[in-house]
Write a structure and sequence with these properties.
With 267 residues, the chain is of the alpha/beta class. 31% of the residues lie in helices and 15% in strands. Strands 8-7-6-5-9 form a five-stranded parallel beta sheet, sandwiched between helices. The chain has a two-stranded antiparallel sheet with strand order 1-2. It has a two-stranded antiparallel sheet with strand order 3-4. β1 and β2 form a beta hairpin.
């Protein structure tokens, strides 16, 4: 039996409870979860986005498991990922929805998502349009906090363009008038290409456990493992340092298929 601690509710007012489950040899010591309430604050969703706004609120309350001691190579139980949040996304009813295969941190992938949002919302009048980034490869590095970038020298994996994780820093344009969507220096322009800005617009960023496992292996091979911890523990530490609001999934490729089966269009 494995004990797991779950934390739900709004940030600063967390409720903790413990429960047990039969897991077999899953390689976990414990897992904790926290809400993603920050993702719905100061929303940039358009007027009329009733379904999207409701989804954002449900996702904010869905737990995120971020207190792992170790993780296995293959996740085999829903309690090992953010299954409640993933279920909310898979249950989204509006037909205008797209799943992006985010692989390369060095290409303008956030701009592509932003431009699609703008076109769907204001050109084709789909305010409830939902975009999901199924993130893996080097793009997955953008989902870790700066503490992991510093400790594990992740800039070496990200490439010369990224000395720090600039993609998790919202730009000054975020303070522009959200009603002026035509502002070329506003919140919907290239001046605010960041993951937090897109989250405020309802974009869901999913992180791939398989990518985490492989990146942990790469760090061990490169001898960038200051605590000399085992592979399963290093992967757990990376998982625990995903940015707020991200949805942990068992694998990008397999989850992409699940999204396509419920109507998400592949990008």
């Amino acid at each position: 039996m494995t004990s797991m601690k779950i934390i739900t509710g709004r940030r600063g007012a967390l409720t903790t409870f413990a429960f047990t489950m039969a897991t077999g040899a899953i390689g976990l010591a414990s897992a904790g979860a926290k809400p993603a309430a920050a993702a719905v604050e100061s929303a940039l969703t358009p007027p009329g986005a009733t379904h999207l706004d409701a989804l954002k609120k449900r996702l904010a309350q869905a737990p995120r498991r971020r207190d792992f001691k170790t993780v296995p190579m293959i996740l085999s139980h829903p309690e090992q990922w953010d299954h409640e949040a993933l279920t909310e996304v898979l249950s989204y009813r509006p037909e205008a929805k797209q799943a992006w295969d985010g692989i390369n941190i060095g290409i303008p992938w956030l701009s592509l998502i932003r431009n699609t949002l703008n076109t769907q919302i204001w050109s084709f009048k789909h305010p409830d349009f939902l975009a999901v980034s199924v993130t893996h490869g080097t793009a997955h590095l953008a989902l870790y906090d700066q503490a992991m970038w510093d400790k594990y020298q992740l800039a070496r994996l990200a490439g010369e363009k990224f000395k720090t994780n600039t993609l998790i820093i919202e730009q000054k344009a975020a303070a522009a008038d959200p009603m002026d969507y035509e502002d070329p220096a506003g919140a919907f322009s290239a001046e605010d290409n960041s993951i937090p800005a897109l989250m405020r617009r309802g974009v869901v960023f999913m992180c791939c456990h398989n990518a985490i496992w492989e990146q942990a292996a790469a760090l061990i091979i490169a001898d960038v493992n200051p605590d000399r911890i085992a592979h399963a523990a290093l992967a757990a530490e990376l998982t625990n340092h995903l940015m707020d609001g991200v949805v942990l999934i068992p694998g990008a490729g397999g989850t992409m298929l699940e999204l396509q089966q419920v109507g998400f269009h592949y990008a």
